[in-house]
Target: GST C-terminal domain-containing protein
Amino acid sequence: MSTEDGASEPTFVEEGREFKRDTNYIPTRITEDGRDGYPVEPGRYRLIVARACPWANRAIIVRRLLGLEDVLSMGICGPVHDKRSWTFDLDPGGVDPVLKIPRLQDAYFARDPEYPRGITVPAMVEIATGKVVTNDYPQITLDFSTQWKKYHREGAPDLYPEPLRNEIDEVAEYVFRDVNNGVYRCGFAGSQQAYDEAYDTLFARLDWLTERLARQRFLVGDTITEADVRLFTTLARFDPVYHGHFKCNRSKLSEMPVLWDYARDLFQTPGFGDTIDFTQIKAHYYIVHSEINPSGIVPKGPELTHWLEPHGREQLGGRPFGDGTPPHPPIRSEVVPAEHWATR
Model:
């Protein structure tokens, strides 16, 4: 069974069954002490992402907030992959300019010629060998915060503060199970019962999040943490994709006032909204998921300028970056065209 991130089989929906995500990722870690044979080193690795993918979007945001651009380069795949792999079709000649490969699959097979699972993003690739080191996306962003600390920019926020880690982990688990993955359990459900159960669980969790965020500006503590990053990437895709395409249609995000204000607060925070490419997001879901959308037609809406309207969350207090500062603007090669995130 494949996932939305691309695998060797094109099937997303299994008739009569609920959607089960394969969470067996490559567990190798890049750490300060190099315990797995891969020490943190500037220029040694390349982060491969796709702007369409919510899991990869997390890594893009955290890398930017922490200011790791100078020590960790980033390759960006196009939004529409085939049954084999994500591809570098956005680059000249369709080849990643650093790894010199046309498909992310090549880096996975460089590590294991018989690699049996999905070719997923984000992936950390060792440049010299061309081998994927890890695609364990939940751990990648935590390691950016804890293992790459020596290379954080001055003023980088603490996204995983030690006193709050247990609470961050607990909230992040709820968010993953019921929201991040919950929307896929709705969209890829193979039976009415599986869909109904996933739908009810999703909106029960969104109601729980609404109650929590009605009292506080951010999910844990009074600053942005890893938990907020993980929720944001799903909320950003909710109205353009999940509401209609995945049948998560009790309410649009824009009809849930607390979550809508919260999402706009983050969207308007440097490092969040300016990493979002709604054009690529919609192209990915509506074209790749041909079982759900056989016509391949990509909807024109929704209107995007509403993301820039005032949100009023400042009245709840909180300091987005704590004692730190906002990140600098994105480097030129990583700028998302304004028409892809701020206008129709």
Summary: Residues 1-9 have pLDDT under 50 and may be disordered.
